[in-house]
Amino acid sequence: MNRNQLLTLLSELVACHAPPGEEREIEAVIWREFEATHPPTGSTTGLKVWQDGATNIYAHLPGQGPKVMICAHKDELGMIITHIQPDGRLKVTNIGGALPWKYGEGPVDILADDGSAIRAILSVGSVHTRSGPMAELKSSRALTWDLVTLFTGLAPDQLAAKGVHAGSRAVVARERKAIQRLGEYIASYALDDRMGLVAIVAGLKEMAQTTRTEERPDCYFVATHGEEIGMLGAVRAAQVLQPEICIAIDTSPVTHDTPTALDPRPSSGMARRPIITKLTATPSCVWPMSWALGRSRPSILGPVLTPGGSSRPAWPGAPSPLASPATIRTATRLLTLTHWSM
């Protein structure tokens, strides 16, 4: 995949709505990309694509090396309706750790039972009032979820008829998620982990061009469910596959004390025993993978970074460097390097 193809796919994935537990929209794109991957003519290797009961989507590219699980999560941060007020306004809280001041007042999409989007406005209230918490918010109080509502203009019975109820998810409106190009940088909501999904699709397509199975690991590319609420899908996939090596591709800001240059080059480390790792993770989010495999404390391979990014919107934070085909190729080669280093 070239640079334009990567960006086109990234834009399409970012536009998809996929809060945890309501990931149908993005799953259609992932299925399409996995199933459109074909080994070259003359290859005896078949590619198998399937989905498990946890909604993880797998693409198995057989090889004669170690069993490797390469995953990226398909869910994003969002909101969940907690209750509906008599006037139809909706109370919400976060799902996955979203913060209301990151979203700000503005349009959001509520996902109805049939998958359609119902437009709403995330609102705190008018600044031209002395009632409520507005005076405190201006000077001394943090904006928290209990202070915001979603306004649709619909009564409770109308919302129910459209399939909106307590438990329905909501996300930032689609037009607010469009990728912004800033020279060699991009910014948008949901780069975590749409960039990772682009990476595994590109890696799968490139590795599928190897006709000799002895030249590659036994690869399972997995788009996982529910990372934002506890790595649920990745843990399930690891339990099912029992890989020798697990590589989770994710995006993260680089902290000041991390000696990593924020450019297209991934940095990598190697270990000579079974590895379970999230490439940009701290040990706290690595250990559940170890438990899933029934193994002792894992080695940490990394960091191997898809450049920059965060679950949270890039406004007004620093934008993320543009991923390049070289990044994807290097990450793909990492699998072969890992094979030969063991």
Explain this structure:
- The chain is an alpha+beta fold and 342 residues long.
- It folds into two domains: 3-76 and 190-341, Aminopeptidase; 78-177, Elongation Factor Tu (Ef-tu), domain 3.
- It is 26% helix and 21% strand.
- The chain contains nine helices and 15 strands.
- It has helices spanning 3-15, 24-35, 100-103, 134-137, 156-161, 191-207, 232-241, 287-293, 325-341; strands at residues 48-51, 57-61, 67-73, 78-84, 90-95, 106-111, 117-123, 149-151, 169-172, 180-182, 185-187, 218-224, 245-248, 275-278, 320-321.
- The strands form three sheets. The protein has a six-stranded mixed β-sheet with strand order 1-2-12-3-13-14, sandwiched between helices. It has a six-stranded antiparallel beta barrel with strand order 4-5-8-7-6-9.
- Strand 1 and strand 2 (57-61) form a beta hairpin.
- Helix 1 crosses helix 6 (191-207), helix 6 (191-207) packs across helix 9 and helix 7 runs parallel beside helix 8.
- The protein is elongated, with a radius of gyration of 21 Å.
- The two termini are 29 Å apart.
- The relative contact order is 0.19.
